[in-house]
Amino acid sequence: MRAIKEEIEQKLTAIELDDAWLLMEEYEKEAPMDMDLLSFKIIYFIYKNEIEKALRLALKGIRSYPVSGDMYYNLAYIYELKEDWLLAGENYMKAQIIYAYSKDEKAQSLQIAEKLAVLMQLIGEKAAACKKLGDFDYAAKVESFKERQKYCFGLDVTVFRKPEQIMGQYIWTDWDEKRYVGIQKPQYSKYILQDSLNLVHTKGELLNVDEGRSYQVSGQSEEYLLPVAVRDQNTRHFFKQGRKAYAVLQKENRHFNYYKVKNGTTVESQGISYYGSPIPLGHDRKRKKLVLNIFVDGLSQEILNGKDFEKIMPYTFRFFSSGTICTQAYSSAEWTYPSLANYVTGLDTLHHMMYHNEIEGKLPEDVPTLAEYFKEMGYITTKMDGDWRSVPSYGHARGYDRCIYQNQVLGSKQEAMIGDTIEQLEGLKDTDQFMWICMGDLHDVADGYDLPFSVQAHIELENRAAEDAGKTSVKQAGSKIKISNYKKMASYTDVLLNALYTYILDNYKEDEFLVSLFADHGQGYLVPNGGHFLSKERAKVAFMFRGGAPEQISDEIISTSDYVTIMNWLAGIPMKPIKTMGNLPACFGGKTEREYALCESLHPKDAYCATFFTKQYTIYFENGAPVGEDGRFELRDYKISITDMDGTEIQDESIRKKYLDIILEHIAPVIIY
User: Fold this and answer.
1) CA–CA distances in Å: residue 258 to residues 186, 226, 278, 418
2) pTM score > 0.90 for this model?
3) Per residue in 287-338, pLDDT tens?
4) Residue 258 maps to which CATH number?
5) E strand segments, 175-327
6) Residue 607 near residue 625 (C-beta atoms within 8 A)
7) 423: domain range?
8) How far, in Å, CA of 415 to CA of 253, rounded?
9) One domain, residues 45 and 89
10) What is the rounded distance in angstroms from the CA atom of residue 536 to the CA atom of residue 618?
């Protein structure tokens, strides 16, 4: 295999293109999914001067291998040939960053720095020429380029986890989208220190805005809520509604006030203002009045089995007993970053490729997100959390009108999250709203943080003994102490959630709401010492729904890949004809049950592993070689084992072969051949 690849390289280098193509056709019969074959074809079409074909393949390469320096270099070179200097510069920089991170000498051998120096000069010259001609669109693109360059074009966006002063400024969430960041709590602003205007110390509200001194509300609804922030304190607005005029003083700057206005209202402002998209008021019978997604980070189903659910989380048990509780739902991944990407797209790790723990990625643009489905149906969409593994720069702002964020460690604690959620629900009760919230405090047990007073007060001294927090929250050894404290934290989370359940039942009829509660992964310290890495304690997650869901406790095998499909079905939203890993479970009215749920770990420097969960067996696959930075690995020294539901290892060659064939086909694109 490697010999023929070397021969292909030689033929391409010698520009013997016909011979190279024949060899590629021969090689494709043996390894059609090899990333190197894709690179060969890109180079081939560049040499053939078929640039558009090369571009299509290069974009496919980035989509499939978003942490490959080679793929970014190929794409950059093609854009350079097309004289698209900005896109060439962006992708050369991405290649340079990834090569440097991976300690790959190609950054020097390919002379990327020299190429970038030339491109920057060309960009400057074109910007100057466009300015003379009055073409300011290119200048806006250059501004986007420079701003996004600060965060390595999305590969290292630190603003959501480090105290960088951003309040009253813009965050770029895509090459053509930026969001203004306002201080979310107005009464706090006078007490905020100037060096605390960041998303670690202060909660921010991120909106798309029109910047200027005037705005007109226009749409099909009779009334709207108009969000407005101002650059300077004590900015006066003059609203005109028909024949009536109102002068309103906005005292606080860098904060959105919401004004209830009639359609057609105009506003003139004395100073620079930031006008958010007007929120139409009113309901539609085709929609739910409330769709609420409650993400509880790290809530394992293994502590909620049988009567333990009612014992540990009685309020949650009672609330969702009037809906569907799934006891055999499995996460597609072992940690938050890839798991949440799966939840909102229905793609598993090898299809969304958001896997790297240090080089940041982005949700694939060719698949709609859950929020985009609901936004398209007319819902007002809000995302409120503090989990920096699902931030706007990762694509998690897509489909959301409003993103409210403060890093979990200091701000978005679950006590505040419940109150803030009720505040948002109350404020937008005249709309049909879709909301995503995050309860992240269960992570405090694994992270070794001090637990809340309400939990500490019930922990015996024997369970306060010092323990190693572990290399990461994922890689934890089994611990009875942590398990005990984890259950107490889950109970406290339940007490807080009860306030939210009560509010919902007091304000909505049963057919007016849809509420889900789900988790991204279990916990490593629940796994018995010596257990498989991707055992059920780490993979089986809380997963439940109320509002149109049948009243049942289901033991059907479900994957978190099914979440988008389930939510859309319960809300009456049709799925788009785009392939995902999602399936509508039979317990929700689907035609067939899953045969298995697949949980996998693709993590740089660790060996790839995967587990199939079925009703009768658990099948474990472990490779013997580490994963590279680009997500690929050599297939060698792998093991596959099978256990029954009692954990007893069994020998069955037919089962072994069946699942080995499935996994080998699944991982084919990331194997180094």
Assistant:
1) 12, 5, 9, 21
2) yes
3) 999 999 999 999 999 999 999 999 999 999 999 999 999 999 999 999 999 9
4) 2.60.120
5) 177-183, 204-207, 209-216, 223-230, 235-241, 244-250, 257-262, 266-276, 279-280, 290-296, 324-326
6) yes
7) 296-600
8) 27
9) yes
10) 9
